[in-house]
Amino acid sequence: MNESLADRGSFLLLLLCVFGYVRQRCAMGDAYAAHYSTRGHGPSPPASPPPEGRYIATSCTKDQWARDDPAFLVLLSAALAVSSILFAVVLGLSLWGFVKFFLWVVFIDCIGVGVVVATLLWFVSNRWLRRVDDQDVEWGYCFDVHLNAFFPLLTMLHVVMPLCFSVMINYPNLLARFFGNTIWFVAIGYYVYITFLGYTALPILKNTHVFLYPFTFLFIFYVATVTAGWNISQTAMNFYHFRAETHNT
User: Where is the signal peptide, in residue numbers (predicted)?
Assistant: First the structure.
């Protein structure tokens, strides 16, 4: 029994090391380069240094910014697969349940939500935030921002939360509720902040501080859920298990 627990602990520690490396790799500037194309031949807006973070403009050829490190997509795909395996172990999913969970994470949580968010922010950016009329933000750039912001969210919700669930979250008390909801607050907050960095890196946009406005509503919702006695992590884990195992019998 002790050897089994030790083996499981070593396996989980290995997963943490892998995700730590991937997270550090993605935090480096060479993991990301914006890709948006300029339209027209008007004067370009003055260049400004990029904010601190992962969004660093590198070089522009043929009027297009290109992601110079496609390995990020490979790392993200591997992270989705490994985190789904971890969830399958923690939730005790069957093989078919794991497949359903993995497909849901890829096509709904990552791609589906990304399409909606990218389309919304693409419209907002081009409609109200452009400095000039002859250049616009490409939809592909907006989806790129989502993918970069999605990674830390994935790490918090699909690695930290399942690892800590049975030890610190799955209890009917204030401390467990506080810790479980804090994970979600940090994960979504990180998503908002990385999104802000992505759009601030574009010199053709103005007033990008509006992308930080969701923090106010996020904090209010966080305090309200902890006070009201709702453990979001418990609800999420139950939902994850339900959507993976329902109709399997």
Answer: 1-24
